Amino acid sequence: MTDRRWPVILLLLLSIPEIVSAELPKAISVSPIAVAPGQMTTVSVNGLNLAGATELWTNLDAEIRRVQAADERVRKIVSAFGEGKTPPSGTVITEAEDFARGKIGKNGPFVLNGNFKPNYAEWDFELPASGRFVLELNFASGESRPVKLFLNGELLTEQAAAGTTGGFADSNSKWMVECVLALKEGVNTVRLERPGGMPHFDKLALVPTELPATRFLSVAPTDRVAPFEIDVPKDSPVGIRGLRVATREGISNLLFFMVDDLPTVKEVRGRNSGSVSQSVNLPVAVEGYCDVGLADRYQFHAEAGESVSIEAVAARVGSNLDPVLRLLDSEGRELAFADDTAGLAGDCCLRHRCEASGDYVIEIEDALMGGASGHRYRLRIGDFPLISVPTPAVIQQGVETSLSFAGVAVEGLPPLRINEAVAGSKLISAAFPGRVGSGFCEVQVTESPQTVIDTSTSIKVPIPGGVSGILSLQDERHSCRVSVRKGERIRIRDTTRGQGVPAVLAIAVQDSSGKTLAEIRKAGNAGRELVWSAPADGEYEIVIADLTGRGGPEFGYHLELDRVTPGFQLTADQDSTILPQNGYTLLKVSVARDGYNGPVLLSVTGLGGQVKLLNETVPEKGKDTRLKIYLPPDYQPGQTRPIRVTGSATINGQVIRQRASTLTALRNVYPQTPFPPGNLDGLIAATVGPEIPDFFALSLDNNTILYPRLVGEVYFTVRVKDRANGFKAPVNIRVEGLPDGFSASGGERAVSRSDDNEYRFQLNGPKDIARGDRPVRIIGEASFKGQTKEVELATLPLRIIDPLLVSIEADGPLTPGSRRQLRVRAQRFVPRAGGDKKQIDVEFSDVPPGVVLPERIVIPAGKSEASVEISIGQTVDVSTLKSVVVTARTVVAESDVTATATLPTQDPAKSGK
Amino acid sequence: MLRILILIFSIAIARPASLCAADKTGAADKTVVPRVAFQKLSVFPASLSLNSRRSSVSLIVTGHDEAGTAIDVTDLAILKSDDANLVRLEANRATPLQNGSTKITVALGDLTVDVPVTIRLRDSDAVSMRLEVLPVLSRQGCSSGACHGSPKGKGGFRLSLRAFDPGIDESTLRNEFFARRTNPLNPDTSLLLRKPLTEVPHAGGRKLIAGSIQHQVLKNWIKEGTRLDPPDAIHCESIQLFPPSGRELTAAAGTQRYAVFATYSDHTVRDVTDLAVFTVSDSSIATADGSGLVTRVEGSRGQTAITVRYLEHMATSFVVSVSEVDGYEWTKPAEVNYVDRLVHGRLRQLQYLPSERCSDSEFIRRVSLDVTGLLPTVEATREFLADSASDKRSQLIDQLLKRPEHAKFMALKWGDALRIRAANISSPGVFKYHRWLVRAFERNLPYDTFARELLTSSGSTFESPPANYFRTAASTNDCTESTAQVFLGARLECAKCHNHPHERWTQDNYYGLGSFFHRVQRDVTDRKDEMFVSVIDRGEVTQPRTGQTMKPWLPGTGEVDLVSGVDRRTVLVDWLTKPDNPLFARVEVNRLWSQMMGRGIVEPIDDFRDSNPPSNSELLDALAADFVKHKFDRRHILRVILNSETYHRSSESIPGNAGDDRYFSRYQRRLLSAEQLLDAICDATSVSEQFGGLPAGTRATQLPSPDFSQEFLKVFGQPERKSVCRCERSEDLNLSQALQVANGSFVQSRLTNGNNRIRQLRKADKSLREIVEECYLAAYSRPPTSDEVEKIERFVEQKRDGAAEEPFEDVLWALLNSNEFLFQH
């Protein structure tokens, strides 16, 4: 390499765009899995690139606050034990060695390391009334020895007493403010714990204060942990929600978490497997994860006659665990077993009536013999209903409805009166009167009237409308009647499959004689909808049963009936998106048409009225559009918004609106969770991200697409260039603006796996089109760092030509007295498949005097060039050579085609003469 | 018994060599006076009703001594027709001549039996193509798979395989080849006759003898114009082979004549012995000629099946060949239960002696491997050997049957039959199906319930794991074949395309059985890897050859009429699990027997057919009856087998049973299965193996599927589970196996492992003697002999100059490479 090349290389390097944006946040797990209604709960999202977490996006209506590394308020609290100070009235001081329980060393006034694993001590403070107190610790520590601080069993922080006092001697003892505790009336237990050497604790003090309680985290915020406080309203129903972490770079993937009214305890790892069981008091929800090949065991006490519900929540919150439950008696005999309870998408539950008072053990393990931190679970144990679906499963918008419940343990649940004003999916939960712990399910809200049916009735139901029921017994059949006119197309949809319902319905339509006119007896997506046309005016019976004849109290169902009218359905390809500053985001919105071919106008809600859209219309007969959403003003980086895309169209004089579904995108993320929480469908989490420059460019050979008429097809190649560092993803290239009758295909993927940059298109069009130029656009679309961009080549000509091109090149300057070889090149376009081979006749005309050139030559069939000698006399004015016309003639597609060219002329000044 | 043998021997001596057929036919002055005092003479058939001049009948004459033993005296008896104008007798064959009634007198010494004869000849008596011509072509081997019955025929002449498709044969015999095969104008010029007579070159050689009955059938059919049977012609409904099972062949009475009778749809019965095909399942026991004469092989001992086929019908009769063994004397070994009684009965009959009782060491090793797949631990072995309780073996059996390892080992075996592998049912499906299996054995699920849950399962393959049965058996035909082989021990693949060549199964049967599964529907669901199995109420099987819609059909029951809405699978399972089902219980007890004894009473265990008889049908019947009586409790049957003295026999042969490999006079020595061997090496060396992502400590004998396999298991024959056939588990010995054990990385890594048994013991400062003893107990379940210890001490001493562990590794290596370790014994 010579020195002269360096600038070129440097230039090349500089020309590669440098994307300085940091990595996108990635969420891996959330701890705890559940937050409690009516409480402030600190949750930690664990993942990657979370240091700059700005917001926690959820579909839960709650106050959420990001918790900082240290609570600034604590720093401002002055110790009540400063020199010359007297602690206020009500201050409680205890000697450290007066602990109520513990395994810890004692030395002089201190409690310290006793070589226990862990060392711990618990102090009980009995208070006459609840109140807030500053916790101050008096200790000596020559190095930072952070300890775990628990209040009433809840871990507040792992960083308590982390400060140093200058040494471990008595003389080094100091009072240090730790935090503000909200203490309850009665006994409050403070626990300090550390596996190894502890600070030398001398005293603990609770100092009354009016300051608000301060929160601590078990894990400090880092690049891998983002802690948030979630203040869940008391009336929030139990159920599963979604969350994402936003940073200034974008938004993370979706995680599931719960709102749960059962008290949470964590598994004590190492003490809940093998022959050892962790004791728990009911009701409770244990959170933990399974290790490979080991069952986690929890022991609880139950009285004779007591019924216990046990429910594993794992797959439904995105865990890798495929849970299996085994309930054992104190002798280790199996009492109940559950794996893959129907309707729970891989999770399982059971209900057991304990015949004898005593201890019972519930085991949970992975059905697939796997295990790791990703195999998390929330194991709910108590006397709570196991609800599969409400009845009716769907309620009419704005109509007060009394809901009962289908489920394994629902007897005694009072009906729930509900009136919802907004259509959509709503979580509901219910508990047995006087019991802690709820069962949960979803109810759908629609505009249509709803009817509940059972075996004893075959009532007439309206269309549109819905029917609900419970197939309580094996082989139970329900039916209802509908009145239909001849030729009317009726759609019957099973809508409950995704709501935790075990029933897989078989649906049949029968005439008055009992003859089956239409039926559907399939599982999966194929079995969810039956469309049927009435052969005559009249009443028809719709018969409903489980496909395999199952039945039971949990086998609730719902059918939605409507007339098939022209309409459409929308799907958005993403469930989250980054709105770059000064830029736009791209959403591919697809239209599934059902009898309607007109345009669909899209709108976006959730970003305010100033949102600007582009490509917001899916054209007539169009299948999709790439909706561009531009960032509205006044949005800050890291800020999140829930947005929805809605399409509207006027069909038969009526405005029809449909919300775009994101179910496909959600399923792509969680293939084992085919039915994510219903209220996540359609919700797109948008966050404001950084502006990143174009990370690729496009080029087209010769900047022109040559289209040979008569042949009707041609190939051309688009290349991706100037890829940014780190951008390796394929680019989706499309051609827009083609004249009518043209189509281009092949740009979805590169020609070869080894070269991501070459995309070959096949252009097809009419054969009898006139020559000329038409403008077309070539657009590349790709995603990088969570953002999708389009790059467009400048508007290009589509040049429609005869299928023959000819050119001439001489092997040297055409100068007076010279004798040269002319190379005649002809490009004969033929269909790719079975293209014929024909010779090309080349004529030279208007040859000036003094120039010797054959009148014609032939380029043989199958060849594309030929050479001919030209002799130029000494006296010939070479400028006259340009009058020579080269005419090529051949036959393509049984038509004569002609192309012409002129001789290349040489500027005399450059010829050296 | 001895007395009977003497009597039979007397008959043989009394039989004059000149007693040929010519002597007997109508020769009133010829009488045979055997020295045996037969108590009774019987003739089959007891009466004759003849309607065709071609329907001659073979009379089978049996003499019964006072012990009731039946001996074939057909060739000794004198047959005489009362009216030779009505019936002609040739040897033991009676041929009608004209209408009338008479009788045949059969005499043996002083004993005589009259056989009434009624003759009503049909007016029209043309040769039937379907009932006579095609059987002859089948009998002569013309329509066999190796000859013209192959799919492309031979020499341009194609017949349907064993005449299963008469339509093809009608065309090829009458019309093809310019009609030169059959020439009604001059029958003798027909190629159908000239070729097998080798009057013109015939690659298949001579297949016909001029003037024989078979030749006459063909010639007469041609002469009569190669007429086809009318559409309403009678057809054969069943055949009967006489005598039935139970006859014994001895050195003295070494032959038995058989006759075959067909019952037609018009209720007429005809002797078709000359039209039927005789085969013998074990030609080392006896042979059969075309006339139905079965002859014992000199010196043979054992049972064989005589199978006869006429058209698509088959019949079987078992015969036992007994040879006198010099100095044989029954030792009256102890009998714990009916297993011993029945095994001993067969052994006495065949004059075998049972081996000695195995040692306690052999027993604990054997029973642990058979029941759990694993070697006993050193501690368990020590405890057992030290136990002086008289019922300690029985106690051990009970303990082992309750062990979770037993359930998992049984699941491994059934996993093969159910083809549990990820490629069939997805990875999650493997775990869920396997767990269901393990739980079924843990709970000792009754076998009928087990079968019902498998064969009638519906729903999600995750939520209802047995529904995976219909995922592995992904088509109607697969369901038919798998179910037949697993639960009926019948290999039906052949019958898919044509009537089974060696079995009763016809192509119609195949598709009739298939119709029970045809309405199973398999849907893909929204959940990844899940399938939903359900049953719809429509859809019928079409027989591909005939185009006929097949009704559900059950063996022994025939076509079944079912009402709409019934899950046909439940009807099949109702039939299958009936206590009197001839196969369901037998197949399973045979499977259990094979697992414990190393060989099935019927072997292969999934190949029950007439031509593959059980080695001890009484034992098989008794086990099956006990199984049914105990509500299909598999653990009960295992307990019965394991507690029998038969199971406790040594694997060492004794002079009185060296030749026995099928009558269970000793325990069947066999190489450990792939999984057993891998686990045994791990246990002996105390170094476990890790399988894929499975939990540490997972044993090879507990693997849910071969998806977690490794090379060692493959080399030793672990099946891929692509087929339900037990034969997929290779039991062949090969060089790779020897190399694996001698030099393979799996064994070597254990011998050199830093924490293997040797090193653990050395770290614990155990003496050489203690180390050797523990290694012997771990590998062989016995302590070493003093001689063995001394040899090892000398060996270790000689190798002291090398690496400290090396001589110990060599000792362990030697143990692992010994037959005592590699074999189940």
Describe this structure in words.
The complex is a heterodimer of chains A (913) and B (825). Chain A has 913 residues and is mainly beta. Chain A contains 4 helices and 72 strands. In chain A, strands 47, 49, 51, 53, 54 and 55 form a 6-stranded mixed sheet that branches. In chain A, strand 53 (640-651) and strand 54 form a beta hairpin. Chain A is globular, with a radius of gyration of 38 Å. Residues 8-14 and 908-913 of chain A have low confidence and may be disordered. By secondary structure, chain B is of the alpha+beta class. In chain B, 35% of the residues lie in helices and 15% in strands. Chain B has a 4-stranded mixed sheet with strand order 2-10-9-6, with no helix packed on it. Chain B has a 4-stranded mixed sheet with strand order 12-20-19-16. A 3-stranded antiparallel sheet of chain B has the order 1-4-5, with no helix packed on it. In chain B, strand 9 and strand 10 form a beta hairpin. The interface between A and B is medium-sized, with 35 and 30 residues.
Structure summarized in a few sentences:
Chain A is mainly beta and 913 residues long.
Question: What labels describe this entry?
Answer:
heterodimer, A: 913 residues, mainly beta, six-stranded mixed beta sheet, 4 helices, disordered C terminus, B: alpha+beta, four-stranded mixed beta sheet, disordered N terminus
What is the topological layout?
The complex is a heterodimer of chains A (913) and B (825).
Chain A: H1 5-15, E1 26-31, E2 34-35, E3 40-48, E4 53-58, E5 63-66, H2 72-75, E6 92-95, E7 101-103, E8 105-107, E9 110-112, E10 119-127, E11 131-140, E12 147-151, E13 154-160, E14 174-183, E15 186-194, E16 200-208, E17 225-231, E18 239-247, E19 250-251, E20 255-259, E21 264-266, E22 278-279, E23 284-289, E24 296-302, E25 307-313, E26 323-328, E27 334-339, E28 348-353, E29 358-366, E30 376-382, E31 386-391, E32 394-396, E33 401-409, E34 416-418, E35 424-431, E36 438-446, E37 450-452, E38 465-470, E39 477-484, E40 489-494, E41 505-510, E42 516-520, E43 529-533, E44 538-546, E45 556-563, E46 567-572, E47 576-580, E48 584-594, E49 600-605, E50 612-614, E51 617-618, E52 624-630, E53 640-651, E54 654-659, H3 663-669, E55 684-689, E56 697-700, E57 705-708, E58 713-721, E59 732-736, E60 743-745, E61 758-764, E62 772-784, E63 787-792, E64 796-801, E65 804-810, E66 819-828, E67 840-845, E68 851-852, E69 856-859, E70 865-872, E71 885-892, E72 895-902, H4 908-911
Parallel strand pairs in A: 2-20, 21-23, 22-24, 32-36, 37-38, 47-55, 57-64
Antiparallel strand pairs in A: 1-3, 3-17, 4-18, 5-17, 6-16, 7-10, 8-9, 10-15, 11-14, 11-16, 12-13, 12-15, 18-19, 18-20, 23-30, 24-29, 25-28, 25-30, 26-27, 26-29, 31-33, 33-34, 35-36, 38-45, 39-44, 40-43, 40-45, 41-42, 41-44, 46-48, 48-52, 49-51, 49-53, 50-52, 53-54, 53-55, 56-58, 58-61, 59-62, 60-61, ...
Chain B: H1 2-14, H2 21-24, E1 40-44, E2 48-50, E3 57-58, E4 60-64, E5 70-72, E6 78-81, E7 87-90, E8 93-96, E9 100-108, E10 111-119, H3 129-139, H4 166-174, H5 191-194, H6 213-223, E11 236-242, E12 247-249, E13 255-257, E14 259-264, E15 269-271, E16 277-280, E17 286-288, E18 293-296, E19 302-310, E20 313-321, H7 338-350, H8 360-372, H9 378-386, H10 392-402, H11 404-417, H12 422-425, H13 427-442, H14 447-455, E21 459-460, H15 469-472, H16 476-487, H17 507-514, E22 520-524, E23 531-535, E24 541-542, E25 549-550, E26 553-554, E27 558-559, H18 568-576, H19 584-597, H20 617-629, H21 634-643, E28 670-671, H22 674-685, H23 711-715, H24 735-743, H25 745-751, H26 757-763, H27 768-780, H28 786-798, H29 806-816, H30 819-822, E29 823-824
Parallel strand pairs in B: 2-10, 12-20
Antiparallel strand pairs in B: 1-4, 3-8, 4-5, 6-9, 7-8, 9-10, 11-14, 13-18, 14-15, 16-19, 17-18, 19-20, 21-23, 22-23, 24-25, 26-27, 28-29
